[in-house]
UniProtKB/TrEMBL annotation:
It holds the Pfam family HupF_HypC. GO terms for biological process: protein maturation. InterPro entries: Hydgase_assmbl_chp_CS, Hydrogenase_HupF/HypC. This is Hydrogenase assembly protein HupF. Belongs to the HupF/HypC family. It comes from the Bacteria. One of its GO terms (molecular function) is iron ion binding.
Length: 90
């Protein structure tokens, strides 16, 4: 199963390459935000992340609700967090 997990943008490490650092459940990784180039992302924004890519911009309330629901999925959530931990765009 593929899940999108909420992450908060904490920094833009390479704006020209559309790379941002996000915090997902206390783990920070550099991901691609290229798919959201038209969304005017800012530090503090929330995004749904899947395997190193921001898939959608969401608000803080939706991030909290999504995280709550995903955590209730148990093993699928743990697998998605593990995939996030293992992924990093160089």
């Amino acid at each position: 199963m593929c899940l999108g997990i909420p992450g908060q943008v904490v920094d833009f490490v390479d704006a020209e390459a559309y790379l941002a650092k996000v915090d997902v459940n206390g783990v920070r990784r550099i991901i691609s935000v290229r798919l959201l180039a038209e969304d005017n992302l800012q530090v503090g924004d929330w995004v749904l992340v899947h395997v190193g890519f921001a898939m959608a911009k969401i608000d803080e309330r939706e991030a909290a609700l999504t995280l709550d629901q995903v955590q209730k999925m148990g093993e699928n959530y743990q697998q998605e967090i593990a995939a996030f931990n293992d992924s990093e765009i160089a």
